[in-house]
């Protein structure tokens, strides 16, 4: 397929077009224009499919990439280069991301037509949804950091507007501002990173950054004392922390659940939060060169473990899912940290799929449970229970996804999480600092916790007796409806591990011939920086230029004897796999004990770990810390200090002082004017009067007298000039 | 009035011509000087006009000595035929010639310079001395020790006509405009006052 | 080759030309011409009285000399004996000078009058121009005469005479200019050479414009000489003979003589300019000059010139006794409103004619057309 | 011999008399006569130089123009004189003092 502009651009332009149409004429259209949004995203899904088929299935070469560029603006003056190019960068990772985003988005659009059916601002929802999807797709396709940053901000805006969709709820407004602000902190760091890169490399296109890295143009450079690479790596990772709600800045994601569930599904589960991880994946070579992989790993594992622990005691179904998202994102970041490049990307894809499915299922559950008193939807798990009979399809989807996320073999979760944990273990063993073993240990514990709280949620909602009779009776039996159940089931279909690993168990033990070899792991590998030095950019519009893509043969040393690391790696993986399976089932068993067979009494546990429990409820006091201390004491204090300075020092001395000086100058000037200028004026007056008197008598009025004067003057002149 | 024959092609011997010319020069110079003197002394305007006539004829004679025959004839035609008669008409039209004597001088001591005949003679002599002194002072004489060459007496009217029509065409046209202006202007100014 | 009278005499007497000798010859030449002119002037008075008498069916002077020919001498003698009276308050100096000026003005023009090929006193290159210039002195003389005699009539006569002469000088000069234009030079010699002997070769019949120029010239010269229809200055009835009322004796004779000689000169110039001057028809003079007696050529040329001049003179006299006198305003309007414009257009006409017909006269054009039509070669 | 300086002398005399007349005489006509003399003096100079020094006819032409312009000037001046007489009944120059301060 030829990668001309009009084969790639429609992916972005369809949702953008839908956004524009809906935004302006949406409300007048039939069904408020939802069919336009769905159709648009489906069209871009088809295009993405076409690219996916070409890149992954046809080319199937690890090094294939397409890089089409056009100059956005060129303000370079003299030898100062200030030229920003925009363009597309498509390689296997982009193709998969495109497919995942468009696929999930299409299904979510479909589901939201069901979920938002009765809503007053029905059309408006789709407007923001389309805008968001186009921004996300553009980010994935873009070839340089600046366009990534632009669409990054656009997504931030869409998430802000969608979180604050139910404007009437005051809490929703606060949550949207909170989300926007916290991500903004991350964005500032991200922008700093971009500027630093531009300052050193002179261009911010990914290809240029890689070639700069290869040529080592970063060495020796330093920004504010810190070595350039580490500074840039930290800043870029700061962006990821902000966007993917990592350790310090994860407070906004739980509150983001105020928005409608499909939006949470799409934005706060599958795509937007994944963007942070996608950025780190893209900039992985910079991170490695920056030497902050350990730091990343630590941040990842802390986030994962912290979020998992908080999820244990959550009662709201969406809160549980929110914290599980944070924890899984923590896993991905840890994967990057420990060097599991491919597994972390795979986990990103698989997590996007089953988390979206979980959220949609939760959405359909919430949608069907009505509370007569508040006329709102019930989200509290204690009021649910026993919905299995009422909502069989939702239950089925929920079950598959919960199995996937808790890492049960045969499911996609296990495939990706196990590889991450394996690499983490290997990382722990190989790492010079022994205490780094904590990373795999916490990783495995978090896996267990995940399994426990997911199944806790499952049992509380679908199993056991219905705790709230009235709600339960009112929930009508669910019959298969295309918009509600089809997306769920399709997504749950994709949670099967075989889809990604090509082997039944996911460990490559039992290969299934039809799917072919491990397509995922072979295609997406860490970008080798050296290859990028000689690849030039191809101008966007002049399609007659053949794209340059080398298909360097990835020399896979087949069955040569295993080097020492690989031996250790293999050993680590086998241990990792076994332990993770054990822990997963352990978690499930505990959940079963506690909630189905009531062997364990949750109340007793709570009382045992009361202080721990309270902390969990307060979400480790992060919110408290931010509101009270960081802002209350820090910012307000700083603000007051500034105000004081402005009032007392600046106004008093600078403004008023100037007034005094002005007065002095004025006095001097007036004196000068009086004494000197006036004197001169009078002088000229007297001179003129003097001349007037003397010259007047000359005019005798007799012509001959004038002749005489004339003649004398002339002759005098003649004589003088001659002598 | 002496009639001098100026041959067109043939040139007399140098001697003849030169002597002719000197005679002519002396006579016309004499005529001019005498008329100038008379002009200075006469009180009667009519006499002044006749003396002016004589002076101008003298100048015409001088032109002849300078081989400017066209100029001499033009001089006679324009001045004698035109200007002097005009002057005479003007004199008659402005009340004859008895205005001269009264001088309304405010500065009596300057009167001699502007009034009586004797001062004129004195003034004239003084100026002559002044001229001689100035000439010697400025060494006018030496500058052009010009040898008197017997220039063949080519008639000038032909070449003058050509010059007028080629190099000085602009001046020629300008003069025509000037004359037109003078013509109309004079006629207009001298119209009798409508009392 | 002799060119003018002094050289003619030198060759005649084969004398070596020295300075004072040439001067002498010029003097002799001048003397002869002046006398001839005065005699002609005198005869003119006689002729006029005879012709006027004849026109009025009376006899005219026949007492003095054969057929009254010597009448003018008698008049001259009378003038000499008359007492020179000068008006009391007259301006003595100007009173005496005025007649002198007139006479000088006229006799000076004789120098250039082209009597014959060799006998003209001086072939001035600016001949025509010179005649016009010097003849303007007459106007001055008349005015001064009028003014100097300190009487109202003579003053009026003098002013009228002067203004008449000045204003008629313009049409005369312009008509002369058209002839000068045709002949390409202002000397009489070139003008005469441009004309042939036979009438059709004369300038008068050269083209219609020159014919009109001749008429304008003739009228102008009449006015310039204060003759006949324009003799206002000495109009007997109103101004008691105008400017020379106070003049008696020889001064009056000067005025009268000046007047008659001026008419002769103007007719001579007219003849030269328009009627072919001393050209003899059928190239007789060139033929005779080759014969042993070159003098005969001169005589023949003289004869041609004088016959033409006297013809014109006769015409002038006849006009005097036929046309009534013009009023002053008619006189002035005739000059400025009719003659001058006609003369100007005439000048432009001749210029156009010259450019268009390449200086050919009508007869030549007809001949050329004829030969051209007949298979011209 | 007749040389340039003699002509210069003559023109100077002319000029001087002209100047005397212009400055000395009270009647307008006298002033104009003086003016004519001055102009003629200049023209004479031109012709003298053209004859003795340059041998070209430009001097003659210049003198020609001087004569023509002098004639025009004389005409206008005399017209003014007549108008002056009509206004002031006298030709005495001192009457012409309106421009006094």
Q: What structural keywords apply?
A:
heterotetramer, A: 723 residues, mainly alpha, 3-stranded mixed beta sheet, two-stranded antiparallel ribbon, 4% strand, elongated, B: 195 residues, Four Helix Bundle (Hemerythrin (Met), subunit A), globular
Number of strands of chain C: 0
Percent of residues in helices of chain C:
55-70%
- Poorly predicted regions of chain D are none
Shape of chain D: elongated
Q: Give the C-level CATH assignment of chain D.
A: Mainly Alpha
Percentage of residues in helical conformation of chain D? over 70%
**Based on the structure, what is the oligomeric state of the protein chains?**
heterotetramer
Largest interface: B-D, 81 and 71 residues
Please tell me the CATH architecture of chain D by its name: Orthogonal Bundle
Class inferred from helices and paired strands of chain C: mainly alpha
Q: Mean pLDDT score of chain D, rounded?
A: 88
SS elements, strand count of chain D: 0
Q: How is the biggest beta sheet of chain D arranged?
A: none
Q: Order of helices and strands of chain C, N to C?
A: HHHHHHHHHHHHHH
H/E element sequence of chain D: HHH
Query: How many individual domains of chain D?
Result: 1
Q: What is the radius of gyration of chain C?
A: 22 Å
The dominant shape of chain C is globular
List the helices and strands and how they pair.
The complex is a heterotetramer of chains A (723), B (195), C (377) and D (101).
Chain A: H1 5-8, H2 10-25, H3 34-59, E1 65-74, E2 83-91, H4 92-115, H5 122-141, H6 145-163, H7 170-201, H8 206-215, E3 222-223, E4 226-227, H9 228-243, H10 252-255, H11 261-270, H12 272-282, H13 284-290, H14 293-312, H15 317-338, H16 341-368, E5 370-371, E6 376-377, H17 392-405, H18 412-430, H19 438-462, H20 469-474, H21 482-493, H22 498-501, H23 519-523, E7 538-539, H24 564-596, H25 602-608, H26 610-617, H27 622-696, H28 703-722
Helix pairs in contact in A: 2-3, 2-5, 3-4, 3-5, 4-5, 4-11, 4-16, 4-21, 5-6, 6-7, 7-9, 9-12, 9-13, 11-16, 12-15, 12-16, 14-15, 14-19, 15-16, 15-18, 15-19, 16-17, 16-18, 16-21, 17-19, 17-21, 18-19, 18-24, 19-24
Chain B: H1 14-41, H2 45-65, H3 69-93, H4 111-114, H5 117-137, H6 140-143, H7 156-165, H8 169-189
Helix pairs in contact in B: 1-2, 2-3
Chain C: H1 5-13, H2 19-55, H3 71-81, H4 92-110, H5 127-148, H6 152-183, H7 188-194, H8 208-224, H9 236-239, H10 249-275, H11 284-290, H12 294-320, H13 328-357, H14 362-373
